[in-house]
C-alpha cells in the first residue's frame, strides 16, 4: 500500500470509505480502490486534486539579520497558498505601507534600501487567505557605518629609504573587536612574504623600497560586516638606467652620437655626460660634453 495513504491523517471509518483529514496542497495524488472475491477482482481509481489551501511561509526571515548603515537588506517571506495569500509586513507591530525606502518584492520578501539606524527592530510578515493566517518574525540589527578616519597619502621617496602609509578607521562599538585593516598593492593582497613590508597599528611600512614597489596601495578597513577603502600612490625614485644602443656616425671632422635613453625610474633625467678615450690612452676617459 502506498505509504502516502497510510499516515495518521488517513482514516478508514468504513470498509468502503477513506477519509483524509487536514488536506494540504501537496496531497494531490491518484488513489486506487481494489475489490476482490473468489471470482476475481476489479480496480477503480480517482484523482485527488487539492486546488485550495491555507497559506504557508516556505522561507521565513532569519531570527537575526545584521546590516550596516547604507547597506541594502532583504528579509525573506516566500509563501504559497491557494487562493494566493495576502501578504502584510509590520515593523514593531506597525504596518509597513511601502514607499521608496521599503518595497515588498513579488516573492513576498521585504527590501529595505540603504538602511539607517532607526530601521532596527522586530519585523513580522503575515500571510493570509480565506482558510487561515500564518506569521513569521525576524529581528533586524543595524550597526553604525565603518569609516576611515585617517586616509593614506600619496608618497614620493628615494630608493632604499623608507615609505610609510598610515590608515585608521572606526566602526560600531559592538563591532570594534572585529575591526581589521588589510592592504593591497595594485588590487592584489599584500602577503608580507617580502620582509621589507610590515604593518603596525594599521600603518604599512616599506623598508628600503625599490622602483618596482611603485604602484597604488589600498587600505581596506573592515569589521566583517562591511568595509571601506582608500588608496594612495607610491613613486620610488632611483638613478636612471644606462643608455642603450649607443652608436656614432662619422662625418668629416665631426661625429654624431646616438643612443636610446634607459628607464628614468620616476626621476626626470637632467642631462647626459659624454666622455671619450683614445687608442693612445684607452683607460683614460676625458669629459667631452654635457647635453
From TrEMBL:
Keywords: Disulfide bond, Glycoprotein, Immunoglobulin domain, Membrane, Repeat, Signal. Residues 55-141, 146-235 form the Ig-like domain. Pfam families: I-set (PF07679), Ig_3 (PF13927). It comes from the Eukaryota. It is found in: Membrane. The keyword Glycoprotein applies. CDD domains: FN3. This is Ig-like domain-containing protein. The gene is 106054099.
